[in-house]
Amino acid sequence: MTGLVGLYPLGGVAWDYFQYVIGLARMGHDVYYHEDTWTWPYQPLENRATSEGDYSARFIGDFFARYAPDLRDRWHYRHLHQKSYGMSQEAFDEIARTADLFLNVSGDCFIPDALSPRCMKVFLDTDPGYNQIMLRERFEWSENVERWCSIVEAHDRHLTNAENIHGSDCLVPSTGLDWKPTGRPVVLALWDAVPPDPPPPGAPWTTVMTWNNFKGPLVYQGVEYKSKGAEFEKVIEMPRRVPVPFRVALGGTQAPAARVASHGWDVVDAPTATLTPESYRTFIAASRGEFSTAKHVYVALRTGWFSYRSACYLASGRPVVVQDTGFSSLLPCGEGIVSFDTADAAEDALREVEGNYERHAKAAREVAEECFEASKVLGQLLEDSLGEAS
Question: Of the candidates 286, 213, 301, 219, which has an alpha carbon nearest to the alpha carbon of residue 251?
Answer without folding.
Answer: 213
